[in-house]
Each structure stands twice: as structure tokens, then as C-alpha cells.
Amino acid sequence: MSILNHLPFFVFVVALAGFGMVRINTVLTYFQQEEYDSSRFLGAVFRVRLFDVLATLGLIGLLIMQAVVGLGVYFWLAAAALLAGLALRERGYSFKKKLVVTQRLKRIRWLSRGFFLLSLVLLWIHPYSVFIILQAVPLWIMLANRLLRPFQEKVNQGFIDQAVDKLKRFEPVTIGITGSFGKTTTKHIFAEVLESAGPVFYSPGSINTVLGLTRNIREKLQRGHKYFIAEMGAYGIGSIKRLCDFADPGYGIVTAIGNAHTERFGDIATIAKAKSELIEHVCARGGMAVYPHEILEHKPFADLQSQYPDLIRTVGETEAADFQIIHAELEDSNWSIALQNNRTPNEPPITYTLPLLGDHNILNSALAVAMTYLISPVTATRIPAFSKDVEQVQHRLQKVEAPGQPLVLDDAYNSNEVGFKNAVTVLNKLAKQRGGKAILVTPGVAEMGLEHDRVHGRLGEHASTLCDTIIAVNPDRIDAFTAALDTSKVAYHARNSFAEARKLVSEISNENDVVLYENDLPDLLEETRLL
């Protein structure tokens, strides 16, 4: 084509190259959120809409103009200006979970950019190949990740070996914690009450993978740490086993079996099997395990209980539980809890105060206290002195107060039905105490799979009975929730983002009100952009 000899075309190619560099950075943000897992990322490409729309439609519009009025070489200049403008716009995108520029990320980014630049050769075959080039960015990222995998696995294994060697040399008492929900909160409570027995090292936040724990062990574990608490997440059968092979816990806590993450596992039975891998590992090496009495209804746990009756303790409100919660009352935002060891009924119950909101924290704390007793009975007698100072866990029903403003309950990291319902109940109680409105802001819960609509229908019914105002964020993804709301009882509003929801809250609330921000995980995992 003679057009290729004109400078405007090359200006367009340069603009397309620059646009591609920005687009790769944007898509890599989502790729990193999916933990460099190409299969999960491929689902996100369609779920979050990580294919090009704006540049494609803009170029089609210019082609129509070219056919109608004849733009000539100005077509390429207009196309270059379009891409440059879109690239500048996209560079200004902000994300709740920002891109972390690790060495691995840099390698994937450079190789992806190289593939993108090579693809520009297609323009010399036919200029319309630009549409293929625009849509291929996710493919280049996945290809780069696949080609770099052998090298990355070697690097990862080196780091893992260093962490394992450090654990063997320092020999801390290792406790694994897993469960469908409640892992992180239980871990924080446990760490604070166990601290009275000796220095405790634990992974911050929700770090619960082999590589996440590896980094923390290599960088932060000290010889003086007597205990190491390892939170363990799972994406399928074998995930917990791999974590156990890595950390080799001598004790284990399972917090719950529920429908959180059903999308990953398929059904509750598979979730129970995956979580039981921790108990199986711990008991096989002669260690001790604790979990709620109610999860004995799941066969893997019932079988383990029968196989290791002397190594497993259950916790619950029933007399059949080994550690029975015999008292739990909320007094001035603090729980007063009593836990009886039914295997030694002559011992007095362990009574303690817990300054954390939410009914679910009764069981979370009881699991932590029971495990502390199993590790060090003497320490358990000192728990009342330590539990009253347990700090609020960030973004997990955390109270945020400011003069002249409504009380905010930040439950951004919660993503399960039980926690959602408990948080709404707390919202209702506190709003009544303050004489204000109970305002719920939520995008629903995530990773429910086939249970998505059923769970959100139940949540909508529950929220309708306890809230005065409900603001649904990105309501299109939770039709079952909004359909279940009784608008004769509750004022309902829909907003597209948390930013819009917060603006509305500032307009309709006063200092007597209580505002619950319940879960931003869907907004994080499904943070769509019109690319």
C-alpha cells in the first residue's frame, strides 16, 4: 500500500505501541490479582471485560468517516490521537489493589511488551490487523507467563527451600489455621492470647499461600520466635496438603466449613475434604487439632474424629463439644465469654473478655482459646488478662469513629454469608443504641458459584428486616439480593461504585447513624473498566 510510505502511518504505529505499553500494565493488574494463574485469569478476561472496546469502536468510527467523507492521510493522525488520548486516560486508572512491581512481574511485563511490539509487524500485512493486535494483549501476558514458568518455578523453589531451612533451624512451634471463613480473625485473636506464652510470628493480613508465607518467613521470622501461626488458604484438593508439607504444623485449627469459595471447589463436600487435609497432617504426626463441633456433619472430619479421638477437640455450644461455650453476652461492645473444658469438668471454666464485634467472634475466639489451652494450659489461665486488649482486625467489622460523623463499621474483607448476616445484626444493634439509622453499603459476596442467587436472596431478606437504608454497589451482579429487599420497610438505593455510595452516605447520614461497609471483594475481583 502506498499509504505505508507516509509519515502519518508511522505516527499511528508509535501511538499504538505506546497504547500497548499502557494496556499491558492495566491488564497485568488483574493478572496479578488472579495470582498469575492463567486459567483463573482467562475467566476474568470475560467476567471483568478485559478486552478492548473503546479503541476498537473509535477506529471503526474513523473508518466509517474515511469511507463517507474521505479523511486521507489524516485518518492515521486522527487514529494516533485517539490512541494517545485513550492511553493517557488509562494511565490515570486507580485500583483498590495496586499493581505490585515484583521481579516476576517485571519479567512478564517485558516479555509481554516484546510480543506486543512484534505483533505490530502485522500492520504491514494489512492495516486492519490492528483489531487483532488490540484484542491480543491478554494472550501475550498468558504466553509470557507460560514461557517464564520453568524459570519462575526454579526461582520460587529456591526461596521455598530457604524458608523451609529457616523453619527447621529455628524450630518454632507451628500452628496451621484454615477454614472457609474466619481464618484471619481467628489468627489475630490467637496470636494475641498466645503471646503471653512467648513471642509469636504470624503472617500479616490474609497471606495464606506457600509463596506468601515463604516471603514472610525469609524476611521476618526471628530465632527468638517461639510460635509460628500459618494461615492456610485453598484453591482445591491438595492446596492445604502442599502448605502442610511446607510448614509442617504440629497443631491445627479449622474455623468453619461453608459455601464461601464454592465457585472454586464446586460443592461443600469438596471444600470439607480440602480443609480436612490440615487435620489429617497434624494428627498423623501426633499433633493436636481443634475445630467447631458442628463440622462433624462432614464425613472427612467425622472419620478423622473416629481415627484420632485423643488428638482432636471440638468447640461449640452443645454439651457434646469438648470445649463448650457456656456463656456469651455482649456488654458495652465487649463480649463476656466462658469456655468449659468438658474433658476436665472439675476445672473452672476459662472466662475472658473480647472487645471485637460480631457473633461469629464468639466461636473464633473460643477456637483460639481452646488451642492455647492445648499448647500451654498454664497460659490459658492468663488469657483473661490478655484477651481484653485484643486489637480490632482491620477491615473485619472494624469500628471507625470521627467527631460529628456516623459510626462506620468497616467489614470490607468479609465475603461469606455467615459473617455478612452477623455484621448486619451488629449494625442493627448499634444503630438502636445510638438512636440513628442502620445504613448498609454492599456489593454482595463473591465466589459463590451456583449458590450465588440463593445466598444473595437469603441475604436480601435478612438485611430487609434489620436495616433502614440499603445501598447496593454494582447491583446488576446481585439481582437476587435486590429482588429480595422489602422496599416497604427499607429505603433502597443503587450505585455503580463505592465512591458513589460514599457520596450518597455523606448526604443522607448524621452523627447518630451507623454505616456498615460490607465486603469490597466483589468490587475488587470484578472491578470493571471500559477498556
Structural summary, described in words:
The protein is an alpha/beta fold. The protein has 22 helices and 15 strands. The chain has helices at 7-33, 38-47, 54-69, 74-91, 103-119, 122-125, 130-135, 137-170, 183-194, 210-220, 239-247, 262-265, 268-284, 299-307, 360-375, 377-380, 383-387, 417-434, 452-466, 479-484, 498-508, 521-525, and strands at 173-178, 200-202, 227-231, 251-254, 288-292, 312-316, 323-331, 334-341, 350-354, 398-400, 407-411, 438-442, 469-473, 491-495, 514-518. A 9-stranded mixed β-sheet has the order 2-3-1-4-5-6-7-8-9, with helices on both faces. The chain has a 6-stranded mixed β-sheet with strand order 10-11-15-12-13-14, with helices on both faces. Helix 13 runs parallel beside helix 14 (299-307).
Defining traits:
single chain; 531 residues; alpha/beta; UDP-N-acetylmuramoyl-L-alanine:D-glutamate ligase; Protein-Tyrosine Phosphatase, Chain A; 3 domains; nine-stranded mixed sheet; six-stranded mixed sheet; 22 helices; 15 strands; 52% helix
Number of strands: 15
Q: How far apart lie the N and C ends?
A: 30 Å
Please state the CA-atom Rg, rounded to the nearest Å.
Answer: 27 Å
Q: Which topology of the largest domain does CATH recognise?
A: UDP-N-acetylmuramoyl-L-alanine:D-glutamate ligase
Give a short account of the largest sheet: 9 strands, mixed
The CATH homologous superfamily of the largest domain is termed Mur-like, catalytic domain
